[in-house]
Amino acid sequence: MTESVYIHIPFCRQKCRYCSFVSFARPELIENYLDALAKEIKHFYKDEKLKTLYLGGGTPSILDVKQIEKILGVLNFDSQTEATMELNPEHLTTEYLKQIRSLGINRLSIGCQSFDEKILETIGRKHTPEDVENTVEFAFDAGFGNVSLDFIYGLPNQTIESFASDLEHAKALGVQHISLYGLKIEEGCYFYNHPPDNIADDDLQADMYLKAIKILSDFDHYEISNFAKEGFYSRHNLNYWNNEHYYGFGTAAHGYENNTRYSNQTNLKDYISNPLKKFEHYVLPQEQLEEEIFLGFRRKTGINFNFLNKKFNINFEKKYSKILDKYIRTGHIEKTDCGCKLTVDGILVSNMILSEFLE
Ligand code: SF4
């Protein structure tokens, strides 16, 4: 049974310079896109009552209330469902957020990235720090009690001090959840062909991350990139990290059902003309195990030996004894009551450690 849905809204007012997500400044295609999306959902969705629902992008808040209602109208969910919508803090009002809330959205994830006006300008964001403050205030006024802010560290000209002050600022606003991402310049974004000056190297990014852990010590660091007040973990994202199934709808969306991972077409016009086309990949048991290890090590709780032993009919500790012994000795992995997890030192070199679990 699949009880989580991700829906991709691939429209933005403009392209941020660091962004290589699938998103387009093509508002004239929104209506056609929503028709295609409805067709896809109606075809694949089996009307399961949803535990989580996530409208991501792109910029879902580029849609008006009627358009959001059209998407949500074909889904089976209620107030017990965690229903998240990503927002860009541009041109939003309390009234808009109230209406979104009345449609059943109960969690907001706001793209802040930085509170430094110059940095926001350099990276091509169109909002100001005040827009973020106002949006958080409007969200609380509209009745949202579960609000997350996203930040990027390692941005051009960003210092540890300015990043630290961003996080203090976020805390002062009273949000319940904070997500942090290290800047990665990937093919397809503006910065890839026009590299900015003064971006952080790996060591500085690591120092920024360590600083964040200290500043956010009153939040639960429940996943490598995510911090939450108690009871405010992202249930939708935990579903990914627990390697559970989910639907993915919309251009470039990914889904996972019946041990098959699939992705949708990334070309907007191709998707609109055939939203039912999916590229599928059946995940073999060894791949499933490796995915489970990769995802499990992202969580604060780490991986559970008994769970994996039963699910994959293995003796995990025996199968991976060399890797576990080595990294427990170096202090990168530590034992828990029922398994093991990465330490903070381990998180900093997690790519290297996790690659050793691949067969
Ligand atoms: S970072 Fe977000 S808002 Fe900026 S272009 Fe990418 S998807 Fe759109």
Overview of the molecule:
- The chain has 359 residues and is α/β, with parallel strands linked by helices.
- It has two domains: 4-241, TIM Barrel, CATH 3.20.20.70; 289-359, Arc Repressor Mutant, subunit A, CATH 1.10.10.
- 39% of the residues lie in helices and 20% in strands.
- It contains 16 helices and 15 strands.
- The chain has helices spanning 30-44, 65-72, 94-102, 117-122, 129-141, 160-173, 190-193, 202-215, 235-241, 268-273, 285-296, 305-312, 316-319, 321-329, 344-348, 350-355, and strands spanning 4-9, 52-57, 82-87, 107-113, 147-153, 177-182, 220-223, 226-228, 247-249, 254-257, 260-264, 278-282, 303-304, 333-335, 339-342.
- Helix 3 (94-102) crosses helix 5 (129-141) and helix 6 packs parallel to helix 8 (202-215).
- The longest helix is centred in the N-terminal third of the chain and has 15 residues, at 30-44.
- The mean pLDDT is 96.
- Residues 12, 15-16, 19, 21, 23, 57-59, 88, 111 line the site of iron/sulfur cluster.
